[in-house]
Amino acid sequence: MYDLISKAADLLTGDAVKTDNFMLRLHYMASVTIFVGYSMIITVSTYAGDPIDCITSKGTQGAPPGNFLDTYCYIHGTSTLDWYVDINAGSHRNIKQNCEGDECDRKHYYYQWVSVVCLLQAALFYLPHYLWMGWEGGMMERMIGTLATEPKYYIDADQQNARSIYVNENFSGFFSLIPSSGCKRTRNLSRIILNTFGENRLYVFKFYFLEFLSAAIAFVQFFLTDMFLGGSYTKNGASLPFDLVQVESNRTDRLEWSLPIISGCTYTQYGSGGGIKSVQSVCVLPNNVVHQKFYTFLYFWLLFVMIYSTAHCVFRLAIIVNPIFRGNIASRYWGETDIKESTDHIIRHIYSNISFSDWQMISFVHSNLAEYNFVLFLEDLSFDYFEKNQDDPKFQKDLLSRLNKDGKKNL
Predict the structure, then answer these.
(1) Distance from CA of residue 28 to its chain's centroid?
(2) Same domain assignment for residues 149 and 114
(3) pTM value?
(4) How far apart are CA 181 and CA 338, in angstroms?
(5) Does residue 287 contact residue 42 with C-beta atoms inside 8 Å?
């Protein structure tokens, strides 16, 4: 048991090097924890507790013993009862349902399967992350190295290791040199990123595919749960919390119909004369009290996951199709260097001109590095990029345009 809990804790902690995002963690961490945790609680409550209690009218002839009747009714299912109100006698249940068509023969078996279905839903939420662990293959961890696990901040940034490039006459009126950070580890990382520009499409495509798959799974989970509950979500929806606080005799919602707290059971046996004899009983299902509250919470949780996942996918589509949007997101939220006359303009050029796959690789780097280390990485990336592309006419034109626009010319 201790080993099982330890492994579960490791799952929730996540990897030292992050290769996913908040949306995916909503699925494989938060949602999986909810489903697995509830499945464990219900399993213990069912097999170590008392999931059903059934009684018959006093003196009913041929009624089986209580424990036998409980087990029989739990295995063979129960029927939903309807309230009939008598002012003098009070409320009581009638075993015969008011129903039409096939609903007259409806029995409730599926509350027995709640723990199993929860585990299956947890596995479905975990599927994209399981696929990503195999497809990713530790690539980001090999690239980042110890920068994520041992930041060390200022220790590696030694000015003695820093290099500078003196610019040509095209940029001399704006700045005289482009410096590197002096940090060996961020310099190595910037070279890896720069040298793999254009080679990461398949890696990033798999990641984006799993994001859209996760969003689709959220919708599948909602409608699977609705089917499991007999349409409670689509027919009652947001009114479920208000239904829970009503007196049971006044409830007409589908959740009460799907997971009844009080229900009927018919026990059939052969009499002494060879005829069939039926014994009717009323059963209390205490687990359904918890089930109703859990599935009410789950309705809003799945709605939240669906809405957030959809919004994230819309954001991702914008990232893919709009380079300007990618550049603005990176410039606004990923921080700036202290060398604004040169390095920041080169970085903005990189953000706006690289493909969405290369942008995503830099995004992974940003999510794994401490803020200061990421600034050092940007300085090294701008240094290496300028060294490689300073004679490219397109690069010169774009960078000069940015410098003129921002009015950075030195006097």
Answers:
(1) 5
(2) no
(3) 0.80
(4) 11
(5) yes
